[in-house]
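Much of our argument rests on the idea that a fold can be written as discrete symbols. Part of our work consisted of pairing the sequence of a single chain with a tokenised description of its backbone. We regard such an encoding as a compact summary of how the chain folds. The amino acid sequence and the backbone structure tokens for this protein are reproduced below.
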Amino acid sequence: SAFSFLLLSSLHTSSQAREKISISDGWLFAKGESGRIDTATLAWSPVSLPHSWNTTDVMDDAPGYYRGVGWYKRRLKIPDFKKGKSLGLYFDGANQLATVYIDGRRTMVHTGGYTGFYVPLDNVSNEIADHEILVSVDNSYNEDIAPLTADFTFFGGLYRNAWLISTDPVHFSMGSNGAATVDITTPEVSVAKALVKVNTEVVNFSGQKRKLKVTVLVRDRDHNLVSKTENRTEIKTREKKTITVNTGAVPSPHLWSPDDPYLYSVTTSITDAATGELLDELVYPLGFRWYRFDPAEGFFLNGKALKLVGASRHQDRPWMGNAVPDVLAREDVQLLKKMGGNFLRVAHYPQDQAILEECDRLGIIASVEIPLVNEISETETFSRNAENMLREMIAQNRNHPSVVIWCLMNEIMLKPHFNNDKTRQAVYFSNIVQLAARLDSIARQTDPARYTMIANHGDFDRYNNTGLTKIAMITGWNLYSGWYGGELKDFAGFLEKHHAKLPGIPLIVSEYGADADPRIRSLAPVKFDKSVEYSLAFHQYYLNEMLKR
């Protein structure tokens, strides 16, 4: 086919050790049944990724939308000169349960609709050049997969991009969390100097022992080299080896901030120590900054107080669902910057890498969260899936300097179970708190540099009396006094109540707002009239109360 020729050409002309080639075009799609591989009778139609099957049925007047199985298939030609390479497929997102078949053989099952996943092709026969990729995606309700319920749509599909990744047999491992194992931290940052630490995991599938050199280069925005560090090592065949590189000091680093989002870059490479051949290379952004949250004084960035003002973002758009091109995703972050914002809550789930890339570039401080919303299932499978979502979220997003918070839950007691049995309900609440503690421990151990947060709805006593407010490092409150209930003035009282009862825990107003329709205007705005004027008055009151504190 024409596409196969273009793919071959792209592979052949690239000289990089690691190649990432788009395979987002050339797919066929059909709705179908789960558990069947005989898809010959399905009604296939051509599609390109990103794609969702819910772009129109969520917009019509009929109640509900299709929640079930969708099938995607594609031919993939592997040229002869790729034999001997380590190959894999990478899907940026599939909502929410994806099963991948290669040449009819089930190769991978991925649970969770908001993080990427890697499908190794190492076991695919080198004798076959033309392979069939078949992907089953299921967005049905599943009691073992969060979110169980929410006030947003669970669009189904391969709704982000897909890639073919080619590397030398000696390369940085893709690990088990959908990200290459190159973790960048800044153990020391000050006005005087900064240090960079890079933890890597290298794998050797070459069939022989290799002597390697792992190099870390730090460059400034103009690509001038400011630090170079090399580690030499030897790795056995089939071995996975952890290698840590501590760079030399970067003197007088140019600090990253919303006003001056200066980005360095970190290039981490593997070369053959004997021949100098480049085997693998990855480049990540680097922002030198330090920060802290103080429960009495607020947020500090690079030693200076900074009010965090911004918005939450969902990833869907009308008539596109969640299958939104990167250029439009970036547009949302650009709009936030233009309106004077410096903070983005990526809610209520991890989103496309384009979002955090734009936050890095524009100086937008970010919080990212896993989709535990409204309620939980009291099963170990549900808890393990939530833990895996957290590990994947951190692994795939930790190298973004814009990220300062990992959020673990959102309004998790909004829909309490067992309202007619308070004894049983207490057990349910206890199970929520235990799961929160497990997640918080994982986040702190995996990434001790970031803060953790749990965002709650405005029932202070429910969350506080059950102990959930004592788990995370920050408590977020989604507050709507003057909209869903109460009066505008109740907002200030809630903030004072938190500071009085939880004086040692920083607070973030993680949501607020009033619905507005730009077609509706009013000279006498009142609650629930959906007018621009009421929404503006609501926003002005809340913002002023936050800026006072």
Summary: Residues 1-15 have pLDDT under 50 and may be disordered. The domain at 2-167 is CATH 2.60.120.260 (Jelly Rolls). The helical segments are 2-13, 326-338, 353-362, 380-397, 422-446, 460-465, 490-501, 532-548. The two ends are 63 Å apart (CA to CA).
